Amino acid sequence: MSVILLSLYFADSPHEGEHTMSKRYLKLLGALLAFTLVAAACGDSEGDGDSGGSSASADANFSDERCQTNQDVGTITFVTGFDFAAAAGISEIIVADARGYFEDLCLSVDIQPGFAPFNGATVIEGAAQFGAAGSFSELVNNNVAGDGDLVALLHWGRTAIEAIVLPEGSDVTDFAGLCGGLVGIKGDLPYSLQAAISLSGAERSCFDEVLLDGFDPVQHLDLGIDALPVYKSNEPNTLTGQGVSFTLLDPLDFDVPASFAIPFTSQSFLDENPTVVEDVVRALIKGYEAAAADPEAAVADAFALIDAAGNPLFLAQEAELFRWQTESTLIADLAPSGTGVGIPDANLLGSEIEAMVDAGVFGELPDWESMINSDIASRLYDGTTLNWPDE
């Protein structure tokens, strides 16, 4: 069953949209994945509520009472956006768990492999308490489509992780230049690229689209398409490794407001468990810092889980190292000076949603401001230094 699910997933990108076939795949996979995660979460939730706590030593910043409060919530579930890949939004929680950061804060966290955007529905339904969205637009769409109360807690990527690969010799120099060409689509065009096209003054209807099978970018370009949507931390590495020349049309170069790797919870869980959410965010930030400081060790932590699960996606350590180094570099390069990394930027995230409205992704402007909590991450920093017990 897992092989069938993964085949459907990779035949159809994790970005929902208007394409009929894409939506059929997404609904099918979403239903099956949600069932699987609900069953897993129910199995994990049995037992005493305080079974997941640790005996972390208390100090002035972390009292015995707070430790007990965190223990009392029991095991909480975090569902990832792309299996156990070494990606932003995933690596930091894997490292935080592997290094004992959650245990230090009297938290018990169960990391479940998932696929965006279905993990948003999983949290909305209560089968998990935390997840990672591929972008803020994805989180907002989950709320709009599912009448949810998801709220962004961290904002790692301040640009698009997606881009367009152009074959060698292409004369396209901007997103409007895609008009009149043939674009290969894996499920649907990612949100950031829809915004880039709209902001260029063009419409998506100006070019033809073809649904692609599989996920090999070399084979896709061999089909003679004029453009291929990719993840900057994935397919370019494959193409370069196989000696295929290309150019990259990057939304970052055109100041397209976009995001990637957005950890979230539900507002209802936050209201009921404020210290738990705050300390999960604290551990995620510390996990990110450790993963960014030692990428090889972060990938090793990821592969401890990947290999234990049988590596169903056939992930390779070299490729995952490229993924994490690419994404963590983007995060570091675009982090505002003098500000703690990962604090949500409401203005930037709002501009992203406004661009989505212009692109027709949303019929009207959603109440996006209620879907961001910048206060938690902000109060965890002293300038750019994370406040951590015993430090």
From TrEMBL:
Residue intervals of the SsuA/THI5-like domain: 92-298
Regions crossing the membrane: none
Superkingdom field: Bacteria
Pathway(s) this gene product operates in, as recorded in its UniProt entry: Cofactor biosynthesis; thiamine diphosphate biosynthesis
Keyword terms, alphabetized: Iron, Metal-binding, Pyridoxal phosphate, Thiamine biosynthesis, Transferase
Catalysed reactions, as listed in the record: N(6)-(pyridoxal phosphate)-L-lysyl-[4-amino-5-hydroxymethyl-2-methylpyrimidine phosphate synthase] + L-histidyl-[4-amino-5-hydroxymethyl-2-methylpyrimidine phosphate synthase] + 2 Fe(3+) + 4 H2O = L-lysyl-[4-amino-5-hydroxymethyl-2-methylpyrimidine phosphate synthase] + (2S)-2-amino-5-hydroxy-4-oxopentanoyl-[4-amino-5-hydroxymethyl-2-methylpyrimidine phosphate synthase] + 4-amino-2-methyl-5-(phosphooxymethyl)pyrimidine + 3-oxopropanoate + 2 Fe(2+) + 2 H(+)
KW Iron (keyword) present: yes
Listed InterPro entries: NMT1/THI5, SsuA/THI5
Function per UniProt: Responsible for the formation of the pyrimidine heterocycle in the thiamine biosynthesis pathway. Catalyzes the formation of hydroxymethylpyrimidine phosphate (HMP-P) from histidine and pyridoxal phosphate (PLP). The protein uses PLP and the active site histidine to form HMP-P, generating an inactive enzyme. The enzyme can only undergo a single turnover, which suggests it is a suicide enzyme.
Subunit structure: Homodimer.
Similarity comment: Belongs to the NMT1/THI5 family.
Name of the featured protein: Thiamine pyrimidine synthase
